[in-house]
Amino acid sequence: MSQRSLILDPEAVPVVRRDDASPPVPPDRLTPSALRQRFVAPPSWEPEMRGDGRLIEREPSAASVLVPLVARGDTVSVLLTRRTEHLRDHAGQISFPGGRAEDEDIDAVATALRETEEEIGLARGHIDVIGALPTYATVTNFVVTPVVALVEPGFALKPDPFEVAEVFEVPLAFLMTPAHHQRHAFESPVGRREFWSMPWQPSPEASRYFIWGATAAMLRNFYRFLSA
């Protein structure tokens, strides 16, 4: 598919709907113990999105991301990164820590843990993997496994300055409220693409984080899993 379909300014793409009709995930499902139990006894459900549609013709490659759920008492937040602007792929975008599988990785969990430690310096001793979501195929044809983990507070981060411009947290309750989910439609000469976004601004004076694309889609699938 043509490179003309690349979305260079996602915030400028028109919003075609907001999901005001779907209910938020109840607070009692967002506690660390409830999240752990959800993966022990998962409901019957289907992911809403399995991929973005390919823009680049290449063989699929396995990758993993960590969905780090920082647990402070019964309050949970999601740890996210903002990629540096000079990167070739997804420059400046909001992402989960993660990346391509390497030969030494025994499974998707090993990839997610290794990449997380390399990218942001989050030590494995603070990470308790509780499950995984269905794989998601990106526009660059990476087949990504989202590995979900509870993260114990008290960690010290050391982001890789080449890859990571910033690390920040967003309340899980905010991301699991569909009224904060926006659907965009991008028209190009080669067709229409749609994507979700979840803009987050902690206060009027604070920076605005535009969570979109594969990261927002995986969070949307997480919403479907927790609300099923």
Secondary structure: helix percent: 10-25%
CATH class of one domain: Alpha Beta
Q: Identify the overall geometry.
A: globular
CATH topology of one domain: Nucleoside Triphosphate Pyrophosphohydrolase
Count of DSSP-assigned helices? 4
Assembly category: single chain
User: What is the averaged pLDDT score?
Assistant: 91
Question: Biggest β-sheet, characterized?
Answer: 8 strands, mixed
E-strand count: 12
| Gap from first CA to last CA | 35 Å
Give start-end ranges of low-pLDDT stretches: none
Report strand %: 25-35%
**Class computed from helices, strands and strand pairing:** alpha+beta
The CATH architecture of one domain can be named as Alpha-Beta Complex
CATH superfamily of one domain: Nucleoside Triphosphate Pyrophosphohydrolase
Q: Report the C-alpha radius of gyration, rounded.
A: 17 Å
What is the H-and-E element order?
EHEEEEHEEEEHEEEH
Notable characteristics:
228 residues; alpha+beta; Nucleoside Triphosphate Pyrophosphohydrolase; eight-stranded mixed sheet; four-stranded antiparallel sheet; 12 strands; 18% helix; globular
Written overview of the protein:
With 228 residues, the protein is an alpha+beta fold. It has a domain at 24-40 and 50-174: Nucleoside Triphosphate Pyrophosphohydrolase. Helix content is 18%, strand content 34%. The chain is built from four helices and twelve strands. The strands form two sheets. Strands 2, 3, 4, 5, 6, 7, 8 and 9 form an eight-stranded mixed sheet that branches. A four-stranded antiparallel sheet has the order 1-10-11-12. β7 and β8 (142-151) form a beta hairpin.
